[in-house]
Design goal:
alpha/beta; BirA Bifunctional Protein, domain 2; 8-stranded mixed β-sheet; 4-stranded mixed β-sheet
């Protein structure tokens, strides 16, 4: 017996019904984003390998798929000191680095403040597991050129509206600022040289809890004055912090917290929770960071933040930038959509003795009427056949026999 033929690990096929649902969800997201004034762009699936490995992508760079140069020979293999020496291109691991390159390439053709939509697949050499795939779709909106908190406000508004349009309820926006994290570490007397390592550990709080994070932190340089128990208690208190308690905290960065409060005040109808332990793993964030959380899920449904330093790496001139990415693969599993049948979709059931020329003529005439038409041979089990067609979104059926092929086709409901 032949072995099953499956896609590569971490990648998936989608049946027509699954693809239809994904397209419907994406359509709702696109529609909302466009109403909020964002414009969709498209970039290549590959970028220059040096650009993808320039330090902008954090740990994701380690997961990037490299594309080997054409025309390599044995001498090239022996001369290479690392595998990347053999690559000139790579599959994009996110949409932010390509956007930064895109803006640098086309800045003269874009508005001073550019609101971008990118909805496209990305690739990472992840270890496949539940909720983690090697190919997946990202839904990004970004605002480039706006330094004030109005950019964050617009992004959160649009994201919340998109989630609401999909019927996903009870989500919460967790918000923080990298400047708040910097001031927090400074209050712990953590040297700047250990700050990045400390943030990587704190970012594990949702996974390993305060005790687990504290145990790792005390092993880092700069935590010699802390006991694991004291640090765990401090982390528990921080995780329970709210707007009022943070406002009185001695360690808070006042300017950053003021910006966060301005965002909150501008969105009074949205549940926005201040979380001083929120890190977001990408090292390119420079200011506000946020995540979309759901009380019933252990993982976020999206996130983003401000990355003011990235575009300057390509352009030579700093451009403020902030973005919000929805975790589409996680969201699409939560969404329940009624199967939206196409009112103009019909099925022509035909007998074996019907001339193919008649079928072609009838179908063509219906297509010209802007109908979606399926030709299907009439099965012996009519009940099962009709049920399957109804499940696929068809609502009307017409029967073509050799005797009726020349006349008008009568359509009836499938149910």
């Amino acid at each position: 017996m032949a072995a099953p033929v499956t896609p590569p690990r971490g990648m998936r096929d989608f049946l027509p019904s699954e693809k239809a649902k994904r397209d419907a969800v994406l359509g709702k997201i696109r529609s909302v984003y466009r109403r909020f004034g964002f414009d969709e762009i498209e970039t290549p699936v590959v970028e220059d390998a040096k650009r993808l490995h320039s330090g902008l992508g954090g740990d994701n760079e380690k997961l990037a798929y490299a594309v080997m140069r054409r025309g390599l020979d044995v001498a090239d293999l022996h001369a290479a000191s690392t595998p990347l020496d053999l690559a000139d291109l790579g599959l994009r691991f996110d949409l932010t680095v390509p956007l930064a390159r895109f803006f640098a390439s086309h800045r003269g053709q874009l508005p001073t403040v550019f609101r971008s939509i990118q909805i496209a697949p990305v690739w990472r050499a992840e270890r496949p597991q539940k909720g983690r795939f090697r190919q997946f779709v990202q839904c990004d909106i970004d605002i480039l050129g706006e330094a004030g908190p109005i950019a964050e406000i617009e992004l959160i508004q649009a994201t919340a509206a998109a989630i609401d349009a999909l019927g996903v309820r009870d989500t919460v926006i967790r918000i923080n600022d990298r400047r708040v994290l910097t001031s927090l570490l400074a209050s712990w007397n953590v040297p700047a040289t250990a700050a990045d390592a400390a943030l990587i550990v704190i970012d594990k709080l949702d996974k390993i809890g305060p005790s687990g994070v504290a145990a790792e932190l005390v092993e880092l340089p700069g935590f010699s004055g802390w006991s694991s128990a004291d640090l765990a208690a401090t982390l528990e208190a921080l995780a329970a912090a709210d707007w009022e308690s943070a406002r009185e905290a001695s360690w808070i960065d006042r300017a950053a917290f003021s910006d966060l409060e301005a965002i909150r005040a501008s969105l009074p109808d949205l549940p926005i929770r201040f979380d001083p332990t929120l890190v977001r793993g990408m090292g390119y964030y420079t200011g506000t960071i946020f995540e979309l959380a759901h009380p019933d899920l252990a993982y976020s449904l999206g996130g983003g933040g401000r990355y003011d330093g990235m575009i300057g790496r390509f352009l030579g001139v700093d451009v403020p930038a902030v973005g919000f990415s929805l975790g589409f693969e996680r969201i699409v599993d939560l969404v329940e959509l009624d199967h939206e049948a196409d009112a103009d979709a019909v099925v022509l059931l035909y007998d074996n003795d019907v001339d193919a020329r008649d079928l072609a003529r009838i179908k063509q005439s219906l297509v010209r009427e802007h109908r979606r038409v399926r030709l299907e041979r009439r099965a012996k089990n009519a009940k099962n056949q009709r049920a399957a067609l109804a499940e696929q979104g068809f609502r009307q059926v017409g029967v073509v026999t050799a005797e009726t092929a020349d006349g008008p086709i009568e359509f009836r409901p499938l149910s």
